[in-house]
Write a structure and sequence with these properties.
It contains eleven helices and 19 strands. It is α+β, with helices and mostly antiparallel strands and 375 residues long. The protein binds guanosine-5'-diphosphate (GDP) and magnesium ion. Its main location: cytoplasm.
Length: 375
């Protein structure tokens, strides 16, 4: 709540400022027209003037429009089951990227420079008639950064622990991040194919960190996996689906879409490409979207696994590569679908202006992505 100055009250009440100053003087407050008053004092003065005050929050257009979209409560009857969103977290090199590779049948891990994940990946896969969306991040910094921006896209955290290494410092951090996000935890005890695999030691480490394996009578499912041989991957998916069923994740596909930009690039050849995950509603070609300081109409959408597979619409937790934004939207920022392109532009421009002022004084503007945010 912004303090109300003598001038603000004078203007709002249509009373000369000196009348207000006199009332304040009687209370022993020496005030100029710029003196701020706290709400109690404002109310007192207003009462002396025989008026009531109503404090209104100053709202920007962006606040008003986007908050209203955020606050739409879906009718129970409009809610439908949606695929869960899974994030792999854990110590570097314990196999997050390899597990996801194996699950979707591609090989990204071996092509990564220095074995470190550079990009956020997001895919939706099918297991029987069920879908599961996966997000692989360069590290839990990206997970935390997204949460810091209010984007809680993760439903279930899979903590990946290499069975030969056991619980490491970054595993402990990952566990506390998952706890802070208040999401259910499943453990993938990975690299079970290695001769040095020591599941007892790893599970001891887990229970010391409050994750009691179910085979020891606790409530945390620990699935033994190997991204190398594929062992346990089916069981991992089944476990994820069981946890998901328990939580009954739902969304309303029949409303305007809201989601999160995971990553975006802009170059001369390809234009602006944004990797998005839809949280609720359905995103369609031609929709007017705004995301941070970027806006536009959805020109094309394609599957994040196969860019040749075009999509006309993307429902809850679908992951898409999208074109149509004027500039690259910031990673971790929510996107919204609006009815009015002029309004979308106005919001994006207000945001761009705000961003510029925030960056004022910094040398060398650098586009912030989730990867650079916490570097
Ligand atoms: P991340 O940093 O957690 O994403 O780990 P990566 O997926 O990049 O894996 C790190 C290294 O461990 C790579 O060389 C992988 O080939 C290897 N690796 C991952 N999972 C397994 C596994 O289950 N068994 C074996 N033997 N190696 C694995
Ligand atoms: Mg990785």
């Amino acid at each position: 709540q912004l303090p109300c100055t003598v001038r603000d009250l004078s203007e709002a009440a249509g009373v000369p400022a000196r009348d207000i100053q006199r009332i304040l003087m009687e209370e022993g407050v020496m005030a100029t027209i710029n003196t701020p008053m706290d709400p109690e004092l404002t109310e007192f003065v207003a009462a002396e003037l025989g008026m009531d005050v109503d404090f209104l929050q100053p709202e920007t257009l962006e606040d008003k429009v986007l908050r209203r979209l955020d606050e739409i409560e879906d009718d129970e009857k409009d809610l439908q089951d949606r695929p869960p969103v899974i994030t792999f977290l854990g110590h570097v090199d314990h196999g997050k990227t390899s597990l996801l590779d194996k699950l979707i049948g591609i090989d990204v891990a071996s092509g990564e420079s220095g074995g470190i994940t550079q990009h956020i990946r997001a895919y939706q896969i099918e297991k029987g008639d069920k879908k599961i969306s996966f997000v692989d991040t360069p590290g839990h910094e990206a997970f935390t950064a997204m949460r810091a921006r209010g984007a809680n896209v993760t439903d279930i955290a899979v903590i990946v622990v290499a069975a030969d290494d056991g619980v490491m410092p970054q595993t402990e951090e990952a566990i506390s991040h998952a706890r802070a996000a208040d999401v259910p935890i499943v453990v993938a005890l990975n690299k079970m194919d290695l001769p040095g695999a020591d599941p007892m030691k790893a599970m001891t480490g887990l229970s010391q960190n409050g994750l009691q394996p179910s085979e020891w009578g606790g409530d945390v499912e620990v699935v033994k996996t190997s991204a190398a041989t594929g062992e346990g991957l089916d069981e991992l998916l089944d476990t994820i689906l069981t946890v998901a069923e328990l939580h009954e994740y739902k969304a309303n596909p029949n409303r305007s879409a809201i989601g999160v930009c995971l990553e975006a690039t802009q170059d001369a050849d390809q234009g602006v490409q944004a990797k998005m995950i839809v949280e609720t509603g359905t995103l369609r070609i031609g929709d007017i979207v705004v995301c941070g300081d970027a806006y536009g109409r959805v020109r094309s959408m394609s599957n994040t696994l196969d860019k040749h597979q075009k999509m006309d619409e993307a429902g809850p937790t679908a992951t898409v590569n999208l074109t149509g934004f004027d500039v690259a939207p910031p990673a971790g920022e929510r996107f919204y679908v609006l009815d009015d392109v002029a309004q979308a532009r106005e919001i994006a421009e207000a945001r761009a202006h705000q961003t510029r002022s925030e960056f004022l004084g910094q040398t060398g503007y650098q586009h912030v992505t989730l990867e650079t945010l916490f570097d």
